[in-house]
Amino acid sequence: MSTEPVVVLERVTKRYQQARVEVHALRGVDLAVRPGEMLAITGPSGSGKSTLLHVVGALDLPTTGTIRILGQDLRAMPDDALARFRRQRLGFVFQFFNLLPTLSAAENAALPLLLDGVARSVALARGKALLEKVGLGDRVDHRPDELSGGQQQRVALARALASEPKLLLADEPTGNLDSEASAKVLDLLAEARRERGLTVVLVTHDPGVAARADRVVRLHDGLVEQIVENAVSG
């Protein structure tokens, strides 16, 4: 495995207008994420956690500073290239699942491939195989409203893995789950890291989730306040 950082941020700032007020969401963040690690981002509400995740996920660009993801300078990429980069190289898991209600679990899991022009039969086969992997082989034809919260999050994880990304980003992935479902999702993330060499960056308020990470970055007022190495993770 390469030792080059998967994510490099150098003096990254992010400002945006909220009504007539200029909000400084990030104030000069320096951060490097190692290949294959799980990095947890914590901090109080309004500290810049989600903004940082959006910048790392190429969902938003910094106001100033340098950002390189998987060796790519995101600020130098046109919009269409950025969209393709997100779809093909990154995986996303969100707190509220973001599944399409009219699609089956298999179709939701296969969605990144379908959007990328992969043949429907091939994409659905891949989606079903991933659902089998996350323990939902008997739910492939169920729509989201026929699944529990924990099952929906596992479908979202399968979708995030569909394009075989090198970097997975998760925003409060256990925030709407009970303790049993949370543990299952975290176990599946740990398994994906082991089997695929996946790098995971997640935002969490849960100390128990943060304790499973290799390192914990604490943000405060848009700045990195502390980085802690965990003795045990997985």
User: What strand order characterises the main sheet?
Assistant: 6-7-8-3-9-10
> By helix and strand content, what is the structural category?
alpha/beta
Cα end-to-end separation: 18 Å
Strand content: 25-35%
* Oligomeric form: single chain
Shape: globular
Q: Which whole number gives the mean pLDDT?
A: 91
Largest sheet, in brief, is:
6 strands, mixed
Query: Which radius of gyration do the C-alpha atoms yield?
Result: 17 Å
Helix-strand sequence: EEEHEEHEHHHEHEHEE
Q: Give the total of domains.
A: 1
CATH architecture: 3-Layer(aba) Sandwich
Gist?
It contains 7 helices and 10 strands. With 234 residues, the protein is an alpha/beta fold.
What would you say this structure looks like, in words?
The protein has a single domain, classed as Rossmann fold. Helix content is 34%, strand content 28%. The protein is built from 7 helices and 10 strands. With 234 residues, it is an alpha/beta fold.
Structure keywords:
234 residues; Rossmann fold; six-stranded mixed β-sheet; four-stranded antiparallel β-sheet
Question: Topology of this protein?
Answer:
Elements: E1 7-18, E2 21-33, E3 38-42, H1 49-56, E4 64-69, E5 72-73, H2 79-89, E6 90-94, H3 105-115, H4 120-133, H5 149-161, E7 167-171, H6 179-196, E8 199-203, H7 207-210, E9 215-220, E10 223-229
Parallel strand pairs: 3-8, 3-9, 6-7, 7-8
Antiparallel strand pairs: 1-2, 1-4, 4-5, 9-10
Helix pairs in contact: 3-4, 3-5, 4-5, 5-6
